[in-house]
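Weekly sync, protein design subgroup
Attendees: M.S., D.O., the rotation student, P.L. (late)

Item 1: inverse folding check
M.S. brought a backbone from last month's batch and wanted to see whether the design step gives back something sensible before we order anything. D.O. pointed out we never logged the input encoding, so this time it goes straight into the notes. Structure tokens as presented (246 positions):
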């Protein structure tokens, strides 16, 4: 009986991370144990330039505790005064989930550690590149309330360049909140507050995402992007995404 109770804890935690329904975990949660591929488009604008980011955002569970995320970005921008476009970067991110369980009351948790490798594919002179390859260790956690199904995900990451023409050193705090409504709809808030140590800037942003599961395999969502503060990378933007779960 004791063994059954102990094994029930991670199972219950997994069910809560799913939002209460088996097989329905929301892939908008970077700590979700899912296999998915998103096709995303995010146009943004500012006083100085416009940009359109077209990207593939994928995730694959190698084991129940090891997840592999990847992104491939194609960038179109007029930041140099003329229209330029090309592949911008390839992001590769293994995530390990060392612990999960119950905090007490109605809250469950899952922790993560990982590292992100960002391979620069564009040209800095054209505005389609950050100008360097980067590596970025990260750690964070997900906290889910069994009563409201609200999930809060604080993440911390430090980006540093190791190859290229640009020196990059940036620390970033990120807070994600995801709230499902019924079995089909969800709302996500995603705030990113980075500090650029090289240029003494705070290029903060926030994203509001509204999504709907059209079926167990397909979801559709829209994004509202907001730049925050004097150092914001853009003023505002709108996006759309199509998700395939498998």
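Designed sequence read out in the meeting:
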């Amino acid at each position: 009986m004791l063994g059954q109770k102990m094994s029930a804890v991670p199972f219950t935690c997994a069910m809560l991370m799913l939002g209460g329904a088996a097989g329905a975990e929301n892939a908008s949660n970077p700590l979700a144990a899912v296999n998915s591929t998103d096709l995303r488009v995010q146009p943004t604008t500012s006083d100085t330039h416009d940009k359109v980011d077209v990207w593939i955002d994928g995730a694959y569970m190698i084991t129940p505790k090891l997840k592999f995320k990847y992104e491939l970005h194609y960038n179109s921008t007029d930041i140099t005064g003329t229209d330029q476009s090309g592949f911008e970067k390839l992001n590769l991110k293994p995530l390990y989930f060392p612990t999960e369980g119950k905090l007490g009351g109605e809250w469950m948790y899952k922790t993560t550690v990982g590292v992100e490798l960002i391979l620069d594919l564009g040209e800095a002179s054209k505005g389609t590149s950050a100008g360097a390859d980067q590596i970025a260790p990260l750690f964070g956690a997900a906290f889910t309330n069994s009563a409201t199904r609200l999930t809060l995900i604080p993440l911390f990451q430090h980006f540093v360049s190791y190859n290229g023409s640009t020196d990059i050193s940036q620390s970033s705090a990120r807070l994600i909140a995801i709230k499902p409504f019924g079995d089909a709809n969800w709302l996500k808030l995603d705030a990113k507050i980075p500090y650029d140590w090289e240029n003494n800037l705070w290029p903060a942003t926030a994203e509001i995402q509204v999504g709907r599961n059209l079926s167990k395999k397909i979801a559709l969502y829209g994004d509202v992007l907001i730049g925050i503060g004097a150092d914001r990378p853009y003023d505002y933007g709108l996006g759309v995404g199509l998700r395939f779960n498998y």
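Discussion: Residues 36-245 form a domain with the Outer membrane phospholipase (ompla); Chain C fold (CATH 2.40.230.10). The longest strand covers residues 50-63.
Action: P.L. to compare against the previous round before Friday.
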